[in-house]
Amino acid sequence: MDDLERFKEILIQIPFDHYDLNVVNREEYLLLFEELFEIYENSTPAEKNSMEMFVQSDQDFIYKFVHWMPPYEKSDPKRYVKYRLLTVTIRDGRPDFRDDLLELVHLWDFLEEKGLDPQKIFEEVNQASESFLIQQVMDPERREELRFRI
Description:
Elements: H1 3-13, H2 30-41, H3 45-56, H4 59-67, H5 77-91, H6 97-113, H7 118-128, H8 132-138, H9 140-146
């Protein structure tokens, strides 16, 4: 089985329920999500594109990535942000790129608060698979424009 087929197989195994959005966050699916990201990161640009198209072709697949929250926010902030950045890249701003832009700014600020270098981490993910959304947040002027103001 090639990486694309394995990626599809794993994604199909992870359930999604519109009445229980946290079903994807059950502990038994953590290793599946991590394998998805490992496959994606180690794939060629053409394979990544096929994986992205597969995810973007199905609303439930998109929402699996939207609602999955890596359990590393406190224990490994860099890993947490990296996984969230990859979900944005794979979904390509679906279902709503505006929400993604706000989340990306929040993730940038989160990394700064943790004493980590957001520029470096965003660049690492963006080099693996370019994302126009990530590139916007890496621009200091655009990032400031995107900050949510109360």
